């Protein structure tokens, strides 16, 4: 015999019943329930709850994907900063016609502006995401981006010095 569970609309107690039964009596409050109506309402509620859970799951997955994309943008940015710093230093040493200075000027503008922009596009977390997974937007995040870009630039400089040493 197939058994289904539903909540009693009167006392919220769990009622086990055979879905073929037409009339069910709640064992807790003795309410008599007409399953043609009550069963349909309970099924509809269950269906809605499942759909809601699926929506939340989809929202959550989309957010985690957006966060990954954001981190990728950040890593590409750090890489560009390191490469540009390295190029500026080497251009200054070996080309000496203002190319290095021009790269530094562009680099400074990018390094001032990009962290502010990157912080502004931190994806909005839906309610379904646990707080541990949430990416924080704000001054703290921007400062962190600034510090990391300076470190990336210093990394690029270090590579440039090593390259210079190899060439000379
Ligand atoms: Zn009841």
UniProtKB/TrEMBL annotation:
Membrane-spanning parts: 76-95, 101-122, 143-163
Keywords, alphabetical: Membrane, Transmembrane, Transmembrane helix
Protein's name according to its UniProt entry: Uncharacterized protein
Organism: Ruminococcus albus
